[in-house]
Amino acid sequence: MKPEARIGEIAKFEGKEVTLCGWVYNIRSSGKIHFLLLRDGSGVIQCVAGAKDVSPGTFEAMKSLTQESSVIVTGSVRAEKRAPHCGFELTLKDVKILQIAKDYPISPKEHGPAFLLDNRHLWLRSLRQVAIMKVRNTIIRAIRDFFDQNGFLLIDSPIFTPAACEGTSTLFETNYFETKAYLTQSGQLYNEATAMAFGKVYCFGPTFRAEKSKTRRHLTEFWMVEPEMAFYDLGDTMDVCEDFLCFVVSRVLERNRADLDVLERPAGPLENVRKPFPRITHAEAIAVLRKAGAEIADNADFGGDEETILTKQFDRPIMVHRYPAEVKAFYMKGDPADRSKALCVDVLAPEGYGEVIGGGQREDDLDTLVAAIKKHGLPEEAFTWYLDLRRYGSVPHSGFGLGVERTVAWLCGLHHVRETIPFPRMMERVTP
Ligand code: 4AD
Ligand code: MG
Questions:
Q1: pLDDT of 357-376, one tens digit each?
Q2: In which residue ranges of the chain is CATH 3.30.930.10 found?
């Protein structure tokens, strides 16, 4: 049954007869000839059936084909520069119709985002969505390759957790037998434990934020990759961020040119993603923002709007470090030169995309960390194991988290993260 060939590798079959399995992307007919655009997930090919090419029964049956009907077609492969999509054409000999799709709801005309999201299970078949998922696949593969090639060990962290990592206001609570548990916001705290066991580790999985936020950058469930390194300081971590992002972007440029074309995503800005990335302090970033006309207080965190303005001033990602400690998480190490600042870094993607990475150096002193946990109103009991890491061989250590969906949105040039994950979860959507 399985297809002997896929459209993406059709060049290998030039001049030969081949059987392809797929779905009707489009069909138009004149009285004497059918033009069928067939898609199979790897590409689209034009199939041509003249009245004399196929049996009269098949020619007649093809008149009933509709968008998304499923078919198995056999024909001979011909290079044809003018053919749409793949530069090859199939002259059909036979068509087997598996099922006629009646009234497929998504037509080539424009639909609103709510309608498309309701039909996400079908929307994923569109060429644009396939291109996005291919880029996503490349990004995920590149992430794993980068850490694999640089001496990191993959150690996945749990999803049920007993306490907050990134602030109590964005926790999803679940029943856990006689008690409560929370869906993980980040694997970082566990990474800190495993980094003390293995030196350099990363975890990669879904994370959850109950943010009551409806921006184009927020999902309630998103994928995050988080490396953690023992004996790395903030500067070392920024070096890793830089190498890592350059690696991922160049991999996409290498493998997904055709997909970027489908998305009409110009490659130029991505080709600029080269070392060194500008490194500016939060205070310097505030000055840049004010110069660009933004009104912002000295100690303010950046929202999406500020990040958009800021990143448009640079032609590549920027690394903003040393935010005010008060706007950052409890585990951040204070800057010895100015305790009001945290040894943290956010990497902001250009073209208005903003934060794709958040990270920094962790507090490694027991007493300072206990005080920070108290100050943030967190339950100390839940952190006894975490505090042990500062009791038994504490060392300077650092790490960061990269959000996959924001990275996909940036590299694909998408306005909203809702298209970057197969089935997006947002404040007002948990279906389909
Ligand atoms: O900046 P965040 O909250 O950092 C952490 O969770 C750290 N514990 C990571 C670490 O140091 N190990 O999140 C990291 C990244 C953000 O830069 C962003 O790309 C993504 O995760 N992210 C989201 N993506 C989509 N929707 C959301 N609601 C997101 N929240 C964070
Ligand atoms: Mg952040």
A1: 999 999 999 999 999 999 99
A2: 120-419
Residues for the chain: how many in total?
Answer: 432
273 touches ligand 1 (CB under 6 Å): no
Q: Ligand 1 test: best mutation among 213, 221, 224, most atoms within 8 Å of CB?
A: 224
The model's pTM is 0.96
Looking at the CA of 418, name the nearest ligand: 1
* CB contact set of 344 (below 8 Å; sequence gap of 6+): 234, 321, 322, 323, 328, 332, 358, 359, 360, 361
CATH superfamily, with its number, for domain 7-99:
Nucleic acid-binding proteins (2.40.50.140)
Residues of the chain with CATH 2.40.50.140: 7-99
| 400-430 per-residue burial string, b: 16 or more CB within 10 A, e: under 16 | bbbbbbbbbbbbbbbeebbbbbeebebeebe
Cis omega (within 30 of 0) on the bond before 158?
Answer: no
- For the domain made up of 120-419, give the CATH fold: BirA Bifunctional Protein; domain 2 (3.30.930)
Question: Residue 347 has which token pair?
Answer: 């990497």
Is residue 415 within 8 A of residue 265, CB to CB? The reply is no
- Looking at all shown ligands, the one closest to residue 402's CA atom is 1
> pLDDT per residue over 52-63, tens digit each?
999 999 999 999
